[in-house]
Amino acid sequence: MDDSPNANDKSLMRSMIIASPESLKINRVLMNKKFHQGKAKQLKEILSKIVVSVQKNTTQLVCAFCLDCCPHAVLGRKGGNTSARSFGAEMVVFDNTMDHPFDSTYPDQPIVCNTDDVAGITNLHLIVAVGMPVEIIGWSLKQQVKECIKNGLRKHAMEYIEIAQFDTRGTMSFHAGVSPREATEWKRKNGCGIAVPGLRKNSMRASPSFLKWLLHLKILISHCFLERFLEGTIRERQALPTKFRVQLLEDWRSYLGCPAEYASELRIGGGLSLNSGAVCFHLDHLNDPRENYDQILWGSICVKSWGN
């Protein structure tokens, strides 16, 4: 239905299509049970009449809320519209030429950074404490993320290949986080379900410099991005750890090498996935369904030639 995506033409890039539950009564268990793509009548009963289409970009930061109970897929514009029409929904497009800030009228819709208008990290003490290059001060958040991912790939591409795993979709992923079980693949019944991270086996083989890279990505994508977009909104405490989570995530912060003095100040969550597919490389900051932790964030860059 859609033309092939082209990294040199932003208008042809695919989109993340996100359908929301029709009401708060529909949790992820019920959604997983009732979601069947071929049953339009059933979909009309459980899905909202507004579907969000987040158009991908060559470099982009996205935060989606409640994604654990929102069916989602990567499609082209035509495919997305056809899918939405099948259950009587309207498509709202988040174009990749502009930023999409938090909207209090629709507090569960995604926030997206596409431009260089958003300031990056400026806390010199934090930058020095975690070993980030001081020359990034003054850069936009998007520039900082792009440089961090590119430099990290240059230094750690071979290590990533050695410790990452392929899932059933042909995506190569490195999972890490606090969990009692190791993720060997992504379980996706009816298109629902998320990766389960594990601070075990392959993730424990990562070198100290690789882990420092992960911490830098987490600070930019998970912390700074949310701080810039959610400050002063009803979600401004999003992902900031409570005193109990600070204690629970002590091993995770130690794994990443996060300074103890920032334990209660940084939104670095309890898990992550580094993923590489056909044309992009990105980090997922994994979500938790409890209040103020119901988000999943990702920062991505388009890789035009994996041969380099």
Textual characterization of the structure:
This protein is of the alpha+beta class and 308 residues long. The chain folds into 2 domains: 10-113, no CATH class; 124-286, no CATH class. 30% of the residues lie in helices and 20% in strands. A hairpin with a 3-residue loop joins strand 9 and strand 10.
Give me the Rg, rounded. Answer: 19 Å
| Amount of beta strand | 15-25%
**Helical content class:** 25-40%
Distance between the termini: 32 Å
Number of distinct beta strands: 11
Global geometry: globular
Count of alpha/pi helices: 9
Elements, N to C (H/E): EHHEEEHEEHHEEHHHHEEE
- In round numbers, the mean pLDDT is 83
Structural class: alpha+beta
Give the quaternary arrangement of the chains.
single chain
